Amino acid sequence: MKSNETRRDFLKKSLTLTTAAAFPTILLNTTGCTNKQGSANDKVNLACIGIGNRGAQVIRDMYDTGLANFVALCDVDMGAPHTENILKNMPDVPRFTDFREMFDKMGDEIEAVTIAVPDHSHFPITMLAMSLGIHVYTEKPLARTFNEIELLMDAAKRYKVVTQMGNQGHSEANYFQFKSWVEAGIIKDVTAITAHMNNPRRWHKWDPSITKFPDAEPIPETLHWDTWLSAAQFHDYTKDFINGQWRCWYDFGMGALGDWGAHIMDTAHQFLNLGLPYEVDPILLEGHNNFFYPMSSTIAFRFPKRGNMPACDITWYDGVNNLPEVPEGYGASELDPNIPAASNGKIQPAKLNPGKIIYGKDLTFKGGSHGSTLSIIPKEKALEMESKLPEAPESPSNHFANFLLACKGKEETRSPFEIAGPLSQVFCLGVLAQQLGTKLVFDRETKQITNNKLANDLLVGTPPRKEWEQFYKL
User: Fold this and answer.
1) Helix, strand, coil shares of the chain as percentages rounded to 5?
2) In degrees, to the nearest 5, what angle opens at C-alpha 168 toward C-alphas 341 and 54?
3) Domain definitions of the chain by residue range
4) Which residues have CB under 8 Å from 148's CB, separation 6+?
5) Which numeric CATH code is attached to 171-393+417-457?
6) Closest to 167 in 3D by CA, of 175, 176, 157, 155
7) pLDDT, tens digit (0-9, with 9 covering 90-100), for 53-89
8) Could you count the other beta carbons within 10 Å of the beta carbon of residue 149?
9) Which of 46, 63, 246, 384 gets the highest tally of CB atoms within 10 A of its CB?
10) What fold does the segment set 4-169 form as a domain?
């Protein structure tokens, strides 16, 4: 956006509300927007977009830091049961049902924003916030398409705002242990990683032979459906698209891989400098269809040699009965009690609980999800190595405090878009392999899929609805 006048026009045009109200506009520097100046006190003026389910958990975690001053709440359904608790506990905080109206009316009062909405809505909200100089905490995965993530990473550099993706384990014990073990040469020469999420998932168990989307249903009176759809192509409302169900549809979410990959593969991806794969191979797709994710998937991601690090494969397994082989001496599979519960229910123990197995030249490691630490297996080898292991530092701040402290210039975020973006793009490539049911060859230099034109086109995805096109030009 080249001028204040252009931005004013953009904000007015993008406000597709049911009433033709005229909103006051924000006057901001639009050329190389710099970080907003922090408030005089030690708290960050924070707005929250998405206040139910996962959004409610994020709000509580931000509140518990003692570093947030809540100045605005936004949700497309302020009358839904899952938004009641936050509204009850924050009765005096201004409320909005459209993020564009919130930014237009209160943008100059907001220093930072949390974005905890369905995957397909991450991009336009995050992009608009950054363009206004507002720091962003965006839930994982960063966005729904490869190109959206590319645009977000570029915008984060241009607008010079603090960014954090919401894979909260990336500020806990596993982050610091993995980093220190790589630096000490304990984790080295890794050639294969098994990443697995075999717990029951909290979405559908529908017949994979379906040939159309669910039939239209009446839109709840309190739900702003057009705003919920965001930049996605139009779909008629059905209850099977909302409240977690969105995650299972290719048009809205990124499946089990996008949901859990950022909690399981994150530290290996960062500290082994994996970057983007050169090949993605869907080895197993059980219940594959054109509308929603398979009930079980096995996907091989192949990464080349990097400097003095050997080539490495990550093989992803999801599905209750799609269990990977575990090495001799693996031991018990326990569910780490520190893994946060699903927003609409507890995570139930499974035959093999979420985690990873890392195969190095000399050592094998097993670990869980989120902040769960690694252990060396088998037990005899762990005892032999015990005296050689470096002591990992404790985290100085959890993921939420880390973000808010970074907004105040006191820390740097641990999962900024420059780190979280390529990780999320790995998931986008995996999703395309799931959706199309075919192996993809990827050129890491040009960031193009070279063996499948349709897949390459889908790196950008379907065009946004007309009134949402401008978000891709900010």
Assistant:
1) 35, 15, 50
2) 45
3) 4-169, 171-393+417-457
4) 122, 123, 142, 461
5) 3.30.360.10
6) 175
7) 999 999 999 999 999 999 999 999 999 999 999 999 9
8) 25
9) 46
10) Rossmann fold (3.40.50)
What amino acid occupies position 217? Answer: E
Q: Which two three-digit tokens encode residue 132?
A: 């206004």
Q: Which of 256, 261, 244, 297 minimizes the C-alpha distance to 436? A: 297
Distance CA(137)–CA(380), nearest Å, equals 42
What value does the CA radius of gyration of the chain take, rounded to a whole number of Å?
22
Residue 26 has pLDDT above 50, yes or no: no
Classify 62 as helix, strand or coil. Answer: helix
Q: How confident is the model at residue 140 (pLDDT cuts 50, 70, 90)?
A: very high
Tens of pLDDT along 439-450? 999 999 999 999
Burial of 373 (0-12, 13-18, 19+ CB in 10 A): middle
Distance CA 163, CA 101 (A): 22
Query: Is residue 142 a contact partner of residue 395, using CB atoms and an 8 Å limit?
Result: no
> What's residue 379's pLDDT?
96
Contact present, 369 and 350 (Cβ < 8 Å): no
pLDDT at res. 14: 63
HSE-CB for 194 with a 13 A CA cutoff? 21
Distance CA 166, CA 60 (A): 14
Cβ neighbours around 232 below 10 Å, total: 21
Task: Compute the distance between CA of residue 98 and CA of residue 14 in angstroms, rounded to an integer.
Answer: 11
Mean per-residue pLDDT, 144-169: 98
pLDDT tens for each residue of 338-357: 787 776 667 778 899 999 99
Residue whose tokens read 């093999």? 352
- Collect all residues with Cβ–Cβ distance below 8 Å to 335 and sequence separation of at least 6: 347, 349, 350, 353, 354, 368
Name the residue among 402, 437, 432, 434 with its Cα closest to residue 420.
402
pLDDT (tens digit per residue) in 359-399: 999 999 999 999 999 999 999 999 999 999 999 999 999 99
Q: What is the pLDDT of residue 301?
A: 99
Record the tokens describing residue 279, joined without a space: 């090949």
Please compute, for residue 245, the number of CA atoms within 13 A of its CA located in the half-sphere on the CB side: 13
pLDDT confidence of residue 15 = 59
Give, in order, the Cα–Cα distances in Å from 20 to each of 14, 17, 23, 79, 413: 12, 7, 9, 22, 40
> Which of helix, strand or coil describes residue 430?
helix
- 8 A C-beta contact, residue 347 and residue 197: no
- C-alpha 304/C-alpha 457 separation (Å) is 24
How far apart, in whole angstroms, are the C-alpha atoms of residue 31 and residue 452? Answer: 38
Reduce the DSSP state of residue 46 to 3 states and report it.
strand
| DSSP H or E segment with residue 267 | helix 266-271
